UniProtKB/TrEMBL annotation:
This is N-acetylmuramoyl-L-alanine amidase domain-containing protein. InterPro entries: Amidase/PGRP_sf, Amidase_domain. Pfam families: Amidase_2 (PF01510). Residues 28-83 form the N-acetylmuramoyl-L-alanine amidase domain. It comes from Tatumella morbirosei. Coiled coil: none annotated.
Length: 128
């Protein structure tokens, strides 16, 4: 189980960074987890985009090397809900830990296009 502090930050050795600039309003309750797959070649490209006013972002990002970054509080809304590399052990770990900690059933985990059309095949290879 993950420990989430009062600010919505996950205290886990595997999670290494945070950017609060993409946080919007308060999120009263986590009802589901959406897996979003970015087309960026590096995590740094995503992080650089977070510097712009009104930037879209996700709560967590798993880089190609397996590093997990927390990019927003789990108690805050972001304009995207997940920047996660598919076919990754860390994806399975993160989804399992988030569903357990936040009490979200596995039936409430979605690929991005299932809840908001972007690219029909996005996160199509993601497995949890």
């Amino acid at each position: 189980m993950l420990f989430v502090d009062k600010n919505g930050l996950v205290d886990a050795e595997r999670i290494i960074k945070r950017f609060s600039t993409i946080e919007r309003g308060k999120l009263d309750k986590v009802n589901g987890i959406v897996v979003h797959q970015t087309g960026d070649s590096t995590a740094e490209i995503s992080f650089n985009s977070y510097k712009h006013t009104g930037a879209n972002g996700a709560h967590f990002l798993i880089d190609k090397d397996g590093n997990i970054y927390q990019t927003a509080s789990v108690f805050k809304v972001t304009n995207h809900v997940g920047n996660i590399r598919s076919r990754c052990y860390m994806l399975r770990w993160l989804v399992a830990e988030l569903t357990y900690t936040l009490k979200v059933p596995m039936t409430e985990i979605f690929r991005h296009p299932e809840v908001s059309y972007k690219v029909k095949t996005e996160a199509g290879t993601a497995r949890w």
